[in-house]
Amino acid sequence: MATSTLLQYLQADDGDGVALTGSPSHRRQVERFIASAAIAEGDAVSFDTSKTADSQKTLYVVSADTGAATSKCFIGVALETAAAGDEINVVISGLAIANVAAGNAASAGVPLMISTGGDFINYSAGSVLQNAAISCEALAATTAGKASVIVFKQF
To answer: Which pTM does this prediction carry?
Structure first.
């Protein structure tokens, strides 16, 4: 089910000064898909274009991997871990905590593209792959191997 991209709430408290738990507005869009294979939380994901039926090519997702022709169509970042056949929520636009390969995203503002195994790497201007996200912080500023990123809507 598609989610709304309308702004839902701006305040960090309930109006009486009581802090809200969680984030009042991530300003992100989340879509639900089916995992073709195991996907880790924070993985960059791609449509699984290996599916025979055309209708399934945009229903199933896999960890993005530039080493396979059928997993290069980046669409977002997995919000949770999923096994093959599980439904999974994917951030297709906006803020997400993503897996980033070591040695990349040394600071905020680094453009990112997909690599192998669901990781992001620094964008290369000569690449045929799309600029998929931008880092909001340095890699491992909060959690080892992960960084906050803004996902650029691709789909």
So the answer is: 0.85
